[in-house]
TrEMBL record:
SUPFAM superfamilies: FAD/NAD(P)-binding domain (SSF51905). It comes from the Eukaryota. Coiled coil: none annotated. It holds the Pfam family NAD_binding_8. The gene is pyroxd2. This is Pyridine nucleotide-disulfide oxidoreductase domain-containing protein 2-like. Belongs to the carotenoid/retinoid oxidoreductase family.
């Protein structure tokens, strides 16, 4: 089951530095045990655990709000948007408990049903177009699927069981760093024996999978349609399930919707990591020249920004820099946040007379997902440098569950749209006219499913891949800090030599989604990195 989340960011111990004439109640000091670059969710989580471990920590954020890509902003007066992020992939339960997030303002609104796919074609005379709704009630979901295929309805419970078996085996890998390959292969016998403990999560995962190991291997390596075609025959169901794989997740049943409210403190832009004479990290220098010294530095920025922009190049091996250049940040996503003055009214599920939201309004609403062919054509256009003329659109309406996000009677709408290239055909950058043209294309398609949508728009915020990079520091516009392809996961994320969060620069660590276990708002990278730092700090 999916959930919509509203929260105040936890601020316990967070230092938000003040520069550029802004005011903060916490003055930036010249010396800390640890400095964290970037106040995204992983940076904040790492900070909380470091301070629980006794380290005096400062979190430095260049934007005026905390939260990174998971931040909420009032970008249109009266309308609060989760501006870049909208999915909460497996927020680790122990983090939720350790940091007392409920006590500090986290409120979860459960969504049931959680997926709605309306069709465009006319239904039987006098009836609305068909639609597919998926939810926690298995009998109702099977009834929905049965409208398109009785066979699919019958096997759907087996498919869920198949996914759940595989997903449960992944959990041990999320809650621990990858296997310590350097420790197992280098150094003294004592060090190698100590590193054996890093194998436990992998062994535990394998034991949970047992005879399902071949299924797991196929799921993470095979094209998604090879798997779905074996299970199902109906186009709407296959296309709906395929959208989750396109976005970057393996198990759609584990996804969650996100909205975090950021704090308005001062901000601080890091220019460079300070390197001491011994070659280790000694803190950071800000863009205004201020030096903040520390014993360790954690970077919540992407690996590219960390190693190509923040770290002096002469502090890194040439071969390592070459490897960093090869990390894939390709992303086809444009996010459009829309403020509307009335609830969208879908032809496939008309609004009630009282104007109250229906169950389908709280869902992830999949548009242009009638068939896999429609998705594939949208993908082909994007590959050719052209924004899709019939894009895949995933719509959410968070204000249906949390009315405080918008003025009375109004709503905030999130459109997660594919496929859009970073550079347009001919390798030219997006212009304002290009953005407006693509937004109009997306709105035209929403209008076909929900007439009146375009007239209801009172404001919008268009974020192409290049805009996501510019605003949030997401290299290539990739919301996961790097492709979640098999060659950039687990032991190879972002590179095999830094998958343990340590970098070639002693005292400099990665703690963002570009490190294991990867993207999505789960917090595991921040937690794992903090544990690694605390263990190393004892030896400093």
């Amino acid at each position: 089951m999916a959930a919509a989340v509203r929260a105040g960011l936890w601020h316990r111990g967070v230092i938000s530095a003040t520069r550029r004439g802004s005011h903060s109640s916490t003055a930036l000091k010249p010396q800390y045990d640890a400095v964290i670059i970037g106040a995204g969710h992983n940076g904040l989580i790492a900070s909380a655990y470091l301070q629980k471990g006794g380290l005096k920590t400062a979190v430095l954020e260049r934007r005026h709000v905390l939260g990174g890509a998971a931040v909420s902003e009032e970008i249109i007066p009266g309308f609060h948007f989760s501006r870049a992020s909208y999915l909460l992939s497996l927020l680790r339960p122990h983090i939720y408990q350790d940091l007392e997030l409920k006590k500090h303002g986290l409120k979860v609104y459960m969504r049931d049903p959680y997926s709605f796919t309306p069709m465009l074609e006319d239904g039987v005379r006098g009836r609305p177009p068909p639609s597919l709704t998926l939810g926690a009630d298995l009998a109702k979901t099977q009834q929905e699927i049965g409208k398109f295929s009785e066979k699919d309805a019958k096997v759907y419970p087996d498919f869920l069981s198949y996914l759940e078996r595989l997903a449960c085996a992944i959990h041990p890998l999320l809650d621990a760093p990858p296997v310590d390959i350097p420790g197992l292969t280098q150094g003294s016998l004592r060090k190698k024996i100590s590193a054996l403990s890093s194998l436990k999560p992998l062994v535990k995962s394998g034991l949970k999978l047992e005879k399902n190991i071949p299924d797991f291997y196929e799921l993470v390596t095979a094209p998604v349609m090879k798997v779905l075609n074996r299970w199902f025959e109906s186009e709407p169901l296959r296309a709906t399930l395929a959208t989750d794989s396109v976005i970057g997740t393996v198990c759609s049943i584990l996804e969650r919707c996100l909205g975090l409210r950021g704090g308005r403190n001062g901000w601080s832009d890091v220019e460079q990591v300070l390197i001491g004479q011994d070659g280790s990290a000694k803190g950071v220098v800000l863009t205004d020249g201020t030096e903040v010294h520390s014993k360790v530095v954690l970077s919540n920025a992407t690996p590219y920004i960390t190693f190509k922009q923040l770290t002096p190049q002469d502090a890194l091996p040439e071969a390592f820099i070459t490897a960093v250049d090869q990390i894939d940040y390709t992303s086809p996503v444009t996010k459009i946040n829309v403020a509307v003055d009335k609830l969208p009214n879908f032809l496939a599920a008309a609004n009630s007379a009282d104007g109250k939201p229906g169950p389908h309004h709280q869902c992830s609403i999949h548009l242009n997902c009638e068939s896999v062919e429609v998705l594939e054509e949208a993908y082909r256009e994007g590959q050719q440098g052209r924004p899709s003329s019939r894009p895949m659109i995933e719509m959410t309406i968070p204000s249906v569950l949390d009315p405080t996000l918008a003025p009375p009677g109004c709503h905030v709408v999130s459109l997660f749209i594919q496929f859009t290239p970073y550079l347009l055909e001919g390798r030219h950058a997006w212009t304002d006219e290009d953005r407006e043209r693509f937004a109009d294309t997306a709105f035209d398609w929403v209008e076909r499913y929900a007439p009146g949508f375009k007239k209801s728009i009172v404001g919008k915020d268009i974020l192409t891949p290049a805009d996501l990079e510019r605003v949030f520091g997401l290299t290539g516009g990739n919301i996961f800090h790097g492709s979640m392809s098999l060659d950039q996961l687990y032991l190879a994320r972002p590179l095999p030599s830094v998958a343990d969060y340590r970098t070639p620069v002693k005292g400099l660590y990665l703690c963002g989604s570009g490190s294991p276990p990867g993207g999505g708002v789960m917090g595991a990278a921040g937690w794992n990195s903090a544990l690694k730092v605390l263990a190393d700090f004892k030896r400093l």
